[in-house]
């Protein structure tokens, strides 16, 4: 069964271009892991007024992207992104789950 999930993360000021650049160059092995884990339709938006990143993805039964922190490639990505995002002590991005209140298909 597929499920939609959304969350927000926090970009450091002045890092918008670098964030977008790094995602345009996302590592193939990270893309493969996400897809193998059932993550699809993954989109991230940036709110320029608040520097908040809004992420939305569809997941199969199992983990979403923010639940893959035991994977070495995810840990490496988190370390790669830590200088431009607000992070937890393990360098995982601080993320806040968002409650879906409306959906139209």
Automatic annotation (TrEMBL):
<dbReference type="InterPro" id="IPR011008">
    <property type="entry name" value="Dimeric_a/b-barrel"/>
</dbReference>
<dbReference type="GO" id="GO:0062192">
    <property type="term" value="F:L-rhamnose mutarotase activity"/>
</dbReference>
<dbReference type="InterPro" id="IPR013448">
    <property type="entry name" value="L-rhamnose_mutarotase"/>
</dbReference>
<dbReference type="GO" id="GO:0005737">
    <property type="term" value="C:cytoplasm"/>
</dbReference>
<keyword id="KW-0963">Cytoplasm</keyword>
<dbReference type="GO" id="GO:0019301">
    <property type="term" value="P:rhamnose catabolic process"/>
</dbReference>
<keyword id="KW-0684">Rhamnose metabolism</keyword>
<protein>
    <recommendedName>
        <fullName>L-rhamnose mutarotase</fullName>
        <ecNumber>5.1.3.32</ecNumber>
    </recommendedName>
</protein>
<keyword id="KW-0413">Isomerase</keyword>
<dbReference type="Pfam" id="PF05336">
    <property type="entry name" value="rhaM"/>
</dbReference>
<keyword id="KW-0119">Carbohydrate metabolism</keyword>
<dbReference type="InterPro" id="IPR008000">
    <property type="entry name" value="Rham/fucose_mutarotase"/>
</dbReference>
